[in-house]
Each structure stands twice: as C-alpha cells, then as structure tokens.
Amino acid sequence: MSFARLDDELARWAERGRCATLWWRDDDAVAQTSRLEPLLALATAQDIPVALAVVPAILEDSLIGGLAAVPGCTIVQHGYAHRNHAAAGAKSCELGDGRALPVVTGELAAGRDRLRVAFGPRFAPVLVPPWNRIDPAVVAALPALGFTGLSTFGPRAGREAAPGVVRCNAHVDPIAWREGRRFVGAERALDAVIEHLAHRREGSVDVGEPTGILTHHLDFDAESWRFVGEFARRTRHHPAARWMDVAEAFRASDARPA
What we know:
The chain is α/β, with parallel strands linked by helices. It has a single domain (about 5-250), classed as TIM Barrel (Alpha-Beta Barrel). The protein has helices at about 5-15, 35-45, 60-65, 100-120, 135-140, 185-200, 220-235, 245-250, and strands spanning about 20-30, 50-55, 75, 125, 150, 160, 165, 175, 180-185, 210-215, 240-245.
C-alpha cells in the first residue's frame, strides 16, 4: 500500500503551520474476545487513545476486566441493546423511528448507569447511535440525560447537536457494508482520509472537527488491521498529525482557517 498521498496532504497542513487532528472510534464492543485483541494491541503499541463504543444492555463482565490494563481506552455508549426497531424495509434504527420517546430515553438512561457503574471514570457520557442514526427528538433529550457528546458519521453541520452536547463524528469507515462486509482496500480507505483532511484544510467543512477513524473489531480481518496499523504508525509521530483522546476531541474548536 502507498501512503505517499497522505504524506503529501500532511505536508500541505505543515506548510500552513497547522496540525491535522485525528481520533479513533471502535463500535460494537460487548465482550473480551480474540476479535478485540488486535485493536487493544495496536492502541497499546502505538500509544493511541481509542473510544470503545460499548453496548450496555449486553455488556459482559469479561470486557470490564479485559480493559483494566488498557488505560488509553475510553468507554462511550453505543445505544442501548443495538436492536433494530425499524419497520420492514426501512433503514435500521434503534433510537427513534416512531418509538415512544420516554421508552428510548429510559433505555439510554439505564445504559448510561450500567456503563458508569461498570467503568467508573473511564466512561465518558458520549452517545454513539447504532447504525449512526438517531431521531431529532432523542437528540434534543440528551442534555437532560447527562450526555455531553454525540458521535455519528460524516462531517458535522455544527459543533453542538443540542445545548451542551458536542458532536464529533467519524469520517472514515474501511468496511464496504453493502459489498460483502469486506475491507474496502487501502487506496479507497486512504481516499476517505485524505478527502476529509483536504476539506478541513480548505475550510469547506469544520476544520476543528478531528478526522475520525471508525473501526468495527468484530468485522475486521487481517488486511483491515494491516491498513489501520500502518496508518497509525505513520501518523503517530508525524509532525503534522496528532491523535486526540475523547476528552480533547469533544472539546475541539469549530474555528475555520483564516
């Protein structure tokens, strides 16, 4: 795989005296499994923080114990049970799609409490909706539930999704879900990274939103991890790139370039 194009883009950031910020979100965590091991090993080896989106209703004790030795892992909330409630033929959705708002918010509150008890201060009150879909009425209810962050997919339209709730999305998903749930390939994955970085540099999207790399450890194969591993190694100590943890990513400014 060739990373020369990424080097060129980062060089353009450096020429402007800027640093390309990045963050890492991994979805669908439930248990400590062999599928999770490559992620934890990479995060530890490269000393890169990762936001692990955990499904609270089906969380297993093995995950709680398994993450004890991985301090760079922050826990965020991945919906409630990752259960599709959409009508037949509609796009998958758990948080909305005609469900009664008190039912949805009650589930989210129960999930929040479960993760807070399980992980203590390592839990950040950031909501990651399953399938990256959430009803606007649920978004409006997030401040009252104690959430301070929301993460879906694609460039954010504004810094706050609701008062006091910062939106910080993922932008690069290396899996082709409609093409056999396979790795898209290094070149397509790099295209997505470079496209978002270029748009930020040019000011056509929010330059303050760090570029989010999304992984799904349960669906990743060896080739997927090779790409993410090489990307991590090349950016971890690059002078024009910097990885943010959850706390910093959700504080990031929405300032645009002059």
